[in-house]
Write a structure and sequence with these properties.
Layout lengths: L7 E5 L3 H12 L4 E5 L5 H12 L2 H4 L5 E4 L10 E4 L15 H18 L4 E4 L4 H12 L6 E3 L2 H16 L6 E2 L2 E2 L7 E2 L5 E2 L2 E2 L6 H12 L1 H9 L6 H15 L4 E10 L5 E12 L2 E5 L6 H19 L4
Parallel strand pairs: 1-2, 1-4, 2-3, 4-5, 5-6
Antiparallel strand pairs: 7-10, 8-9, 10-11, 12-13, 13-14
Helix pairs in contact: 1-9, 4-5, 6-7, 6-9
The protein binds 1,4-dihydronicotinamide adenine dinucleotide and oxaloacetate ion.
């Protein structure tokens, strides 16, 4: 008899982003979820998972959520999401996290490689463009199976601000953010619209520039408000959208961090670009025609990513 098995999703790091992601994945019944943290935090990790399971009768989801520090529990995962690492506090940049998190991401990837060699891996840990590179090197997986999260979140912020500006539904806003996940990211105004109407016909140049700038420092805005950590609801929602695109082979066109081999003129670099995300992971990267101004902005963003890579020490 053929038995159809549920998908298995591992979330490494059971902190703010990891725990929120685990709950959202289960609520959407995308698969069974294994939530992993370090041995010293095994009981709190088990406690979070059990607490989520106890929400399942109320909310009516049948996904299982298991908390653990043992990678054997993660074996043969279809998707692994890595949120392990430290988060920034007010006054810090994402790049300040680089060497602590590079060591953590590398050690996590060694376990992922051993226990889930066929998984598609999505990285959240910051600075995420560089951490996706570290993961790619540590995993040794093909480039289509190593994906970083930045553009879905940055685009979500951008679209939130546009919807607010025009007092329209967020559902009707389309936008794109290219480049690295830092203050030089490149929201593409020319490719932004509401209900198909280009935003530059509806919002003044000055206001658009303010929205672009607010998007670029959107992570910092939340860090300053929270005071003791960084954003987690919208980052978790972004990870869930990417995971859903993979597990349901939806072939969504999403801005994601991909390994570039000539695209946009870049080589041996992970950076945010629009791509088709489906059952094969990154199935195709789209190369948009850019104006000279947009190209210069992308180059500045690529430089910032390269500069972080220069100081990675693993
Ligand atoms: N790329 C993006 O768009 C975003 C990235 N981030 C980044 O995600 C990371 C996590 O953020 P939060 O969840 O808010 O932090 P958090 O501090 O709440 O949670 C991180 C968790 O990772 C765990 N951890 C540390 N080393 C580990 C290891 N070797 N194995 C397993 N778990 C380990 C910690 O014990 C902690 O529970 C940070 O680096 C943050 O900057 C956060 C939001 C958005
Ligand atoms: O800002 C941070 O440190 C966390 C993050 O990447 C974001 O929320 O965009």
């Amino acid at each position: 008899m053929t038995v159809i098995k549920r998908k298995k999703i591992t979330v490494v790091g059971a902190g703010f982003t990891g725990a929120t992601t685990a709950l959202m994945l289960a609520q959407k019944e995308l698969g069974d979820v294994v939530l992993v943290d370090i041995p010293q935090l095994e009981n709190p990790t088990k406690g979070k998972a059990l607490d989520m399971m106890e929400a399942s009768p109320v909310q009516g989801f049948d996904s299982q959520i298991k908390g653990t520090s043992d990678y054997e529990d993660t074996a043969s995962s279809d998707v692994v999401i890595i949120t392990a690492g430290i988060a920034r506090k007010p006054g810090m940049s994402r790049d300040d996290l680089v060497n602590t998190n590079a060591g953590i991401v590398k050690s996590v990837c060694e376990q992922v490689k051993q226990y889930s060699p066929e998984a598609i891996v999505i990285i959240l840990s910051n600075p995420v463009d560089a951490m996706t590179y570290v993961a790619y090197q540590s995993l040794g997986f093909p480039k289509n199976r190593v994906i970083g999260q930045s553009g879905v979140l940055d685009t979500a912020r951008y679209c939130t601000f546009i919807a607010e500006e025009l007092n329209v539904s967020v559902e009707d806003v389309r936008g794109f953010v290219l480049g690295g996940h830092g203050d030089d990211m490149v929201p593409l105004v020319r490719y932004s619209s509401v209900g198909g109407i280009p935003i530059d016909t509806l919002i003044s140049k000055e206001r658009i520039q303010e929205i672009v700038q607010r998007t670029r420092v959107g992570g910092g805005e939340i860090v300053n408000l929270l005071g003791n950590g960084s954003a987690y609801y919208a980052p978790a929602a972004s990870l869930v959208q990417m995971t859903e695109a993979v597990l349901k082979d939806k072939k969504r066109i999403l801005p994601i961090i991909a390994y570039l081999e000539g695209e946009y003129g870049y080589n041996d670099l992970f950076m945010g670009v629009p791509a088709i995300l489906g059952g094969g992971g990154i199935e195709k990267i789209f190369e948009l025609e850019l104006t000279s101004e947009e190209k210069a902005a992308l180059e500045k963003s690529a430089d910032s990513v390269r500069n972080v890579l220069k100081i990675v020490n693993v």
